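DATA CLASS: polypeptide
GOAL: derive structure tokens

***
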Amino acid sequence: MSSNTAHQQLQLQTALDPDAYASGAATTTGAPEIDTRGFTECAFIVMAGDLGSSGTVDVQIQESATSGSGYTDITGAAITQLTQAGSDDNKHVVIRLDLRKRLRYLITEFTIGTAASDLAIACVLAGGNEFPVSTTDADEVVSG
């Protein structure tokens, strides 16, 4: 059994800050790049808040071998569209990835359709195997 602590084996990253996003074309604007070096798996937690009238939310995870460019869609790493008509307000969806089969850098591409909608996305990196790894990009960490 590893003597590494949970904060060494897990890392929380913001994949998209919580906000009300305007409708528009697919974008990665505002979505920070996530460096997965040293981790073996991750989960993206997509958290939709209030969806505007007839609003839709699509999320697709992309990968690249190079920081800053060359991103392409990961097959199977997209959510089923969330819709206001489908009563998908205030729901969350998880996208899990085996990082041993992925390129190093990940980014979230999202599309808000028809009406402004609330959205936030977090990424939990797990299975940290290169130490030390930074623990989080959270605004505050409290230990009890």
The chain has one domain: 13-126. Strands lie at 10-21, 34-35, 41-51, 56-64, 72-78, 82-83, 92-98, 105-113, 117-126. The chain has a mean pLDDT of 89. The first helix runs from residue 6 to 9.
